[in-house]
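FIELD: query
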Amino acid sequence: MSKRRVAITGLGVVSPLGNDVQSTWHNLLAGESGIAAIQQFDASAFPTRIAAEVKAFTPTVNTAGRHNRFAMSFTNYALEAAHQAFLDAGIKPEKYNAQRWGVITGSGMMTAEFEYLQRFQKTCAPDGETNWTQLQEEAHQFYKLVDFGKTTSNSGLSLLIQQFGIEGYATSVHTACASGGQALGLAMQVIRRGEADFMLAGGFDSMINPLGLSSFCLLGALSTYNDAPSTASRPFDKTRHGFVLGEGAAFLVLEEWSKAKARGAKIYAELAGEGNSLSSYRITDSHPNGDGAIQAIERALKDAGVRAADVDYINAHGTSTKMNDLSETNAIKAVFGERAMKLPASSTKSQTGHLIAAAGALEAVLSVLSIEHAQIPRTANLTTPDPECDLDYVVDGPREKSLGVVLSNSFGFGGSNSCLLFKHPEFEGAGNE
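FIELD: result
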């Protein structure tokens, strides 16, 4: 039985490079950086004082609702990106089809705003130890009904469901940096199985707060190039020594192919394959030989029925950490053999920073736009080649190139690996025969 094909018909983005798809793509190709000194709080005492923040964001009237008091700041990014995706697709849930719509979100690990934690500490643990009597007597001083709504792990998913009237399949994914990619892959599978005809899928996140920043600083995972923010993210460069925290949201509208064609929808690309694996090497590192990543890439190719020789570009995970970049390079070499040296790859994190749970979703959008515009974004800040990372990382971009098949890699803390495969709508290969 042939698989139901999945069309991508709508895109929405709120990113460090822009608060919509067009500005994000334009600024990416123009070589702009979304990385700067942190503005949301005083980070002067931290080893890392830079991040890729969303700038000048104001929720639109279209995403306002009575439930929005339960939204954290980055949940508003999700509502806006989803709204953009529906507008772009020219279709949204209606009463007659709401049960055939589903939603899957890649969501982050921060389920309480730092301000809430501060209120708790000030009221009930001013000396560092929780005073349980004081907690009972003065709970109203720090705990409100909206706090419960905000701090549930599925609050963002629930708000999307309520805001847009989705009545079908719904779930959220948290696999760290692989979350957004795996949310899209699962949404593709839901349509293939016939459980839905339309899916809203993507990711949203922000860990740019004192707790998130301090956690990654303690791991030694962040770049400390504070005096040169725009060059701090240096994927595959010999001088790289850490990633840059980012924030934002990206959502895509997916449709069963024949339904999208029947209504005359613009189809950006086909989401044709996904691959997942769990490498379980270390909590923070991938295996140097690329073991888990190899499995994810090979499974995506097999799932799509595409040969490795058909791949034209890889949007790399490329975090700018020593181990990840080496591991991904070795994985690409293992899968593509001699052709790996001539296969264009680039890391857009060099300009957007690392959006954690939203990274895979944003990079899916950028991969789709690469197919539409036949342009490959460059890897910024790669100026000192690393002899161990010696692939074609596209430093001369944007590079003009017709793209039939594009891969997007997302490899998360804890060993979760995701690879998505996108096809040009007119690509004719093994998977479309």
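FIELD: remark
The two ends are 13 Å apart (CA to CA).
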